[in-house]
# Entry
Amino acid sequence: MKIKLTSDEVRDAFIHSNLEENYNFLEEDLVKLANAFVAKAEPLIRKDERSACLEIANNLNREVAAKIQEVRENAKSN
# Structure
Protein backbone atom coordinates (compact mmCIF):
# COMPACT_ATOMS: atom_id res chain seq x y z
CA MET A 1 0.00 0.00 0.00
CA LYS A 2 1.43 3.36 -1.02
CA ILE A 3 0.55 6.42 0.99
CA LYS A 4 -0.52 9.47 -1.03
CA LEU A 5 -1.61 12.79 0.36
CA THR A 6 -4.58 14.67 -1.04
CA SER A 7 -4.21 18.28 -2.10
CA ASP A 8 -6.28 19.31 0.95
CA GLU A 9 -3.93 17.42 3.28
CA VAL A 10 -0.89 18.96 1.60
CA ARG A 11 -2.38 22.45 1.75
CA ASP A 12 -3.19 22.03 5.45
CA ALA A 13 0.34 20.78 6.23
CA PHE A 14 1.87 23.63 4.24
CA ILE A 15 -0.24 26.28 5.98
CA HIS A 16 0.67 24.90 9.42
CA SER A 17 4.39 24.33 8.72
CA ASN A 18 5.50 27.79 9.95
CA LEU A 19 8.08 28.33 7.21
CA GLU A 20 10.49 31.24 7.56
CA GLU A 21 9.82 32.62 4.08
CA ASN A 22 6.70 33.18 1.98
CA TYR A 23 6.63 30.63 -0.81
CA ASN A 24 4.26 30.63 -3.72
CA PHE A 25 4.22 27.04 -4.96
CA LEU A 26 1.85 25.80 -7.61
CA GLU A 27 -0.58 23.41 -5.95
CA GLU A 28 0.46 20.56 -8.26
CA ASP A 29 4.13 21.09 -7.44
CA LEU A 30 3.43 21.24 -3.73
CA VAL A 31 1.49 17.95 -3.91
CA LYS A 32 4.34 16.33 -5.88
CA LEU A 33 6.89 17.56 -3.34
CA ALA A 34 4.83 16.40 -0.37
CA ASN A 35 4.29 12.96 -1.88
CA ALA A 36 8.01 12.68 -2.64
CA PHE A 37 8.72 13.33 1.05
CA VAL A 38 6.11 10.76 2.05
CA ALA A 39 7.56 8.17 -0.35
CA LYS A 40 11.01 8.69 1.14
CA ALA A 41 9.76 8.47 4.75
CA GLU A 42 7.28 5.62 4.29
CA PRO A 43 9.79 2.72 4.42
CA LEU A 44 11.37 4.16 7.56
CA ILE A 45 7.99 4.59 9.22
CA ARG A 46 6.96 1.06 8.29
CA LYS A 47 10.22 -0.34 9.68
CA ASP A 48 9.73 1.51 12.98
CA GLU A 49 6.12 0.33 13.18
CA ARG A 50 7.10 -3.28 12.57
CA SER A 51 9.81 -3.08 15.22
CA ALA A 52 7.33 -1.66 17.72
CA CYS A 53 4.83 -4.44 16.91
CA LEU A 54 7.52 -7.07 17.36
CA GLU A 55 8.49 -5.56 20.72
CA ILE A 56 4.85 -5.63 21.86
CA ALA A 57 4.45 -9.22 20.70
CA ASN A 58 7.68 -10.15 22.46
CA ASN A 59 6.41 -8.65 25.72
CA LEU A 60 3.14 -10.57 25.47
CA ASN A 61 4.24 -13.87 23.95
CA ARG A 62 7.85 -14.69 23.06
CA GLU A 63 6.86 -17.66 20.88
CA VAL A 64 4.57 -15.50 18.74
CA ALA A 65 7.28 -12.84 18.45
CA ALA A 66 9.82 -15.45 17.37
CA LYS A 67 7.44 -16.77 14.72
CA ILE A 68 6.75 -13.24 13.42
CA GLN A 69 10.49 -12.64 13.16
CA GLU A 70 10.97 -15.96 11.37
CA VAL A 71 8.24 -15.16 8.84
CA ARG A 72 9.76 -11.71 8.19
CA GLU A 73 13.22 -13.14 7.65
CA ASN A 74 11.85 -15.77 5.26
CA ALA A 75 9.92 -13.09 3.36
CA LYS A 76 13.08 -10.99 2.97
CA SER A 77 15.04 -13.93 1.54
CA ASN A 78 12.35 -14.74 -1.06
Q: What stands out?
A: The chain is about 75% helix and 0% strand. The two ends are 19 Å apart (CA to CA).
